[in-house]
Specification:
The protein is about 45% helix and about 15% strand. It has about 260 residues and is an alpha/beta fold. The protein folds into 2 domains: about 110 residues, Rossmann fold (3-Layer(aba) Sandwich); about 140 residues, Alpha-Beta Plaits (2-Layer Sandwich), CATH 3.30.70.270. The strands form 2 sheets. A 5-stranded mixed β-sheet has the order 5-6-4-7-8, with helices on both faces. The chain has a 3-stranded parallel β-sheet with strand order 1-2-3, sandwiched between helices. Helix 1 packs across helix 5 and helix 7 crosses helix 8. The longest helix has 20 residues.
């Protein structure tokens, strides 16, 4: 199967994974435009897709399944558990290449990520907060913001500012990697504002880890993080955001990088 896919996709840059764990690891390391999955073994394909979808860094990656049957209901999502497209085996090289090409272009046009940091952007962040708030699933909401970022931008220019923003994103990712749970999510809502969602029991470690990673980079900026917990039960996303903003404002009143978060602290 891998040989046939390599032949069909010879005009693309392709990396290969022979199992579900390697698929997830390569997806994080390489950030591919499209992941092609051998779904003739439905159980293994499901595990591979779950690994990709459960990581906030790869949740939006387009996935094309190679299947041995047509979808029963005529729709790829219902039949194949969340894959974006499919091709039926045995396939013609031209068909698979065309499907991947279309998926790449579609992915580029609709990708809801912030172009500077590669993290999910404003729309995806709002949808994720609303989904969790409506489900009643308890989670911690961390609102991350730089202190006096405009002054740094004005003094050193936007290129230096962009570097600092990317440093914030990298610090968040490294802090969340120490937790490594499916309940973690991070997004860049614009400017120097970031949102992190994590299990409530990990909120303190995540906030402290973000600050530790960021301060170690010596950017010339400090950061403030507001931390609140949804507490379980359905909650108004707007109210949750307001609470996090208030906690962030309290953190800003302290010198240096700090976080504030009521019961989460």
């Amino acid at each position: 199967m891998r040989s046939a896919v390599r032949r069909a996709l010879d005009r693309f840059a392709v990396v290969e994974a022979a199992d579900e764990v390697t698929t997830s690891a390569l997806a994080v390391a390489c950030r591919p435009d499209v992941i092609v999955v051998d779904a003739t073994d439905a159980a293994r394909a499901g595990r591979a897709l779950a690994g990709v979808r459960n990581d906030f860094r790869t949740v939006l990656t387009t996935t094309v399944y190679i299947v041995d049957r047509l979808p029963v209901d005529g729709g790829v999502n219902g039949a194949f558990g969340g894959a974006d497209d499919y091709v039926v085996c045995p396939f013609a090289d031209e068909e698979l290449a065309a499907r991947v090409d279309v998926s790449v272009r579609r992915s580029e046009s609709r990708r809801g990520v912030n172009p500077l940091t590669g993290l999910p952007g404003n729309t995806v962040v709002r949808e994720e907060i609303a989904r969790r708030a409506a489900s009643g699933e308890p989670f911690a909401f961390l609102y991350v913001d730089l202190d006096d970022f405009k002054a740094l931008n004005d003094r050193f220019g936007f290129a230096r500012g962009d570097d600092v923003i990317r440093t914030v994103a990298g610090s968040i990712v490294r802090a969340l990697e120490t937790v490594s749970g499916p309940g973690c999510f991070a997004g860049h809502v614009g400017g120097d504002d970031f949102v992190v969602l994590a299990p409530p029991e990990d909120a303190e470690d995540v906030a402290a880890g973000i600050i530790r990673c960021f301060d170690a980079e010596l950017t010339g900026c400090t950061m403030s993080i507001g931390v609140v917990s949804s507490g379980g039960g359905a909650e108004d996303p707007l109210r949750l955001t307001e609470r996090a903003a208030a906690a962030k404002a309290a953190a800003k009143r302290r010198a240096g990088s700090s976080w504030d978060g009521g019961t989460a602290r």
